[in-house]
Amino acid sequence: MRALILAAGRGERLRPLTDTLPKPLLRAGGRPLIEWQVERLAAGGFRELVVNHAHLGAKIEAALGDGARFGVRIRYSRESPALETAGGVAHALPLLGEAPFVVVSGDIHTDFDFATLAPRIAAIGRDPGSCIAHFVLVDNPPWHPSGDMGLADGRVRLEGPRLTYGNIAVYHPQPFRELAPGSRSKLFPWMYGFVARGLVSGERYAGAWDNVGTAEQLAALDRRLSR
Predict the structure, then answer these.
(1) What is the pLDDT of residues 165-196, one digit of tens each?
(2) Is the pTM of this model over 0.85?
């Protein structure tokens, strides 16, 4: 199974920390954020990883190397400039292959069990006409009380009580092939078109999940992990 770790963001809200260090290399619990993700993916059975990067990307490559010490193979999708989320996924497609893959942000920390996505990957691969993606949603954090999308009967909806996109998903490569190569494209609202057509399944994850967007959030996560 393959996964893409998104690590190309500039991390503007974390400046000046990110002036000299890419956001995924900021440390919490004594290690870089992205290392937690690599290890969780490896534990879930993902052996082929792709990391995209732009800002100070050489430092990410130096930190992770080829992935051997984690028991995985890591390849890199280099962007200049950063292509936003959807554009970054499209740019990485040659490294991701033809089968569905997981996409996860390199600046979150979670105890989510990535192995549970294996059946989703298989189902989307068998019948992308019925389901093109699977989203992991979380309860709305204090900094995003309005949420992003609803969930009912295992399908993501545009209406209903809202949850927050957890920056973890399974995608079939086909939608991203429709994007112009090298274009800067955001994931949303573009992906909402597929939601409206009933092509996105989803689940609610109620376990540990942190999105590190500010210095205060990084410090809080560091304190918790250090305990």
Answers:
(1) 999 999 999 999 999 888 999 999 999 999 99
(2) yes
Q: Round to whole Å and give the CA distance between 154 and 136.
A: 11
Domains within the chain, CATH numbers bracketed:
2-226 (3.90.550.10)
- With 0-12 / 13-18 / 19 or more C-beta atoms within 10 angstroms meaning exposed / middle / buried, residue 160 is exposed
**pLDDT for 32-80, tens place per residue?**
999 999 999 999 999 999 999 998 889 999 999 999 999 999 999 999 8
Residue pointed to by tokens 């957890």: 166
Among residues 43, 39, 48, which one has the least CA distance to residue 3? Answer: 48
How far apart, in whole angstroms, are the C-alpha atoms of residue 92 and residue 109?
Answer: 23
Residue 92 to residues 55, 121, 152: CA-CA distances in angstroms? 16, 18, 31
Q: 132 near 174, Cβ under 8 Å?
A: yes
Gyration radius of the chain over CA positions: 17
CA–CA gap between residue 196 and residue 95 (Å, rounded): 29
Amino acid at position 208, single letter: A
- Name the 3-class secondary structure at 221: helix
